[in-house]
Structure formats: C-alpha cells, structure tokens
Amino acid sequence: MAPHRLTKDEARRIAIHAQLLDAPRPTDLVEVVERLTLLQIDPTAAIAPSADLVLWSRLGSAYDPADLTRAIETDRTLVETVAYIRSPRDLPAVIAEARDAPTYPAMEAWLRDNEPFRRDILALVREKGPLLSRDIPDTSVVPWPSSGWNNNRNVTRMLESLALRGHLAISGRRGRQRYFDLPERVYPAELPVLDGEAAVRLRNERRLAALGIARSAGPQIPGESPYVGDAGEEAVVEGTPGTWRVHPAYVGLPFEGRTALLSPFDRLVHDRVRAEQLFGFEYVLEMYKPREQRRWGYFALPVLHGDRLVGKLDATVDRRAGTLVVNAVHEDVPFTDAVSAAVHSEIEDLAAWLGVTVTHAAPPAR
C-alpha cells in the first residue's frame, strides 16, 4: 500500500483532532482520558497541576478537579499509576510492558537483595492497607545506592517498583502522599494478562490513536514514549524528513479549529521534535533555568490557535492576591486582532476557572 501523502496542514490537523483540541469541545472527562490514554502527574502548580490543565484545555471551565479525584478514588473509572492517570483498559498492557522491560543491573541487584523487604511490604499492605509510604517501616536489607533526590527513600522505591509491575496499586491520595493497596482492591476484576508482544502492539495502537500521527521509532525521551512502531499506516509529510505512521481513521476528516492554552506537558507538544517538524514550534520548559536565562517564562503555556501553535503565555497564579498574573504573551508570529482577542478570551476563561481575576505585571524598569 502506498503511503499517505499529507501536507503539513493536514498532518497538524490530524494531531490536533487526535488530542481533542479541535471544535467542538468534548464533554466527558473519562472519555477524554481514554482517548488521550494518559495524564501526566506533575506537582508543579505555577498555574494549576498539569493533569488539570490538560483537562481544562479540552473540557473548558465545566471541568472540576474534584471530578477527576472522584473518578480515580470513588468510581474507579480511571486509575493512577506511577506518574500517570490512565484508563483501566490500558492497565494490562502497561503492567506487562513494565514487567518485561529490561531492569538496570543496579536496580535488579537491589530488588534481589531486598526480597525480604518486598515480602514485608506486601504482607503489611494485605493486612492493613491502604497505607501511605510513611506508614510502612523500612526493613530493607540494602539501601538504595543513590546520592540524588531518591537517596534513602527505600520504601518509596520499593512501592513504586511493585506498583509498576502490578503487585500493588495506588488507591488514592492525601495531598501529595499516595495510598498503596492490593490491586484486587483497586483495579477492575479479572484484568487480562498480556504477553510482552501483545502489550507492545496494544500500546502502540493506543498511542497512535491519541497522537494521530507519530514516528515509528527514534531517540528516547523521558517519560511516555512518543513512538508507535508499525501501528497505523505509513505517511509522508511534506517538508519533513523520513516517514511517519498515521491513524487512517483521522485522514481526510473535516476540521474546525479553536484556541487553547496548553500545559507544557500536553501531548500535543511533549515531543518537542515532532512539534518543531509539524508546527515549526520551538519550546523549552524553563522552570529549571535561572530567571535571567529564560526566554518565555518559568512555566510558559503553549498557545494553540486553529491548526497553528502561535506563541506562549507567561503567567503565574498569585493565590493570596486572587490573581492570574500575566507577565507576557509571546507571539511566535504577529497576532491579528482576531487571534489576540481569542487568546485573551482564553486567558479570561482560565482565570475564571481558577477563581481569580486577570492582572498584568508591570513592565520591567529600563
């Protein structure tokens, strides 16, 4: 079969449609997460937690973060895994992929040496769960050999290792603290067990349905892979090197764009190479840079208008003052009056959703 031949406009519109960022807006929270396959959990809240921003970008101000908590902790229509919120339908493949993934030699040795520690945790959770990590004594035989942020966090390391492989499950939260319990008390009954090959195939298919168009393979980036193997069908996009994989159901669909402010972790822009090749969009998350080296801001939100990524919003929330402080709206291309009005309407909507008012920072002194 000959590859699909797509213009950049067509490729962008496929990506935007797959991510539910076209018009009309979706209306169902659980259906949105099922389509996106994941929400990344990140504690940075210069404006709002990333998972909430991603859902607001799709659902608008009708979205209430309490609905997400209820879906995870009460209804169990969504689940929290290590670093992500997912649909339960993806659990078998996610667990199988983690189970079969190669383990770093240091981690493998640490787990082997701490087998009694692992058994202690499972027995305690079975008897008394759900439990916070601070409720679990550290009976490790060998401490985790790190000088970094996770040094001497043996309980957390073991809990996350067990959760990744489906031996424990995250059942809820108290603030930023996670409760861990047995998976049969949290996950749907009788989840299928997949082998590694089936898991990879399903993950690639689900990922392509969420991304619309993606590369088959490439350099690894932190977090969820942006690559889809041989899922979908081959495509060539004008002005970009090599070939892509495209979800055939999205090719040729009518497109109606809208304006959206995106989390820096939004899947539309998370693969920075894809964002540059399809959208001509340059972006670096600058929260780890010294202030004087930032071009766009601490937690700048990419700005989508129609089928273009047109700029970045540098803003922060001052909860004490009850304001969304707009430091700058960076225009990658000059905004027309219509684009400017649409972007500022979204800023006002963001502030209303946050329960604050918009204010503009004073320009720096010359």
UniProtKB/TrEMBL annotation:
It comes from the Bacteria. InterPro entries: AlkZ-like. PANTHER family: CYTOPLASMIC PROTEIN. This is Winged helix-turn-helix domain-containing protein. It comes from Micromonospora globbae.
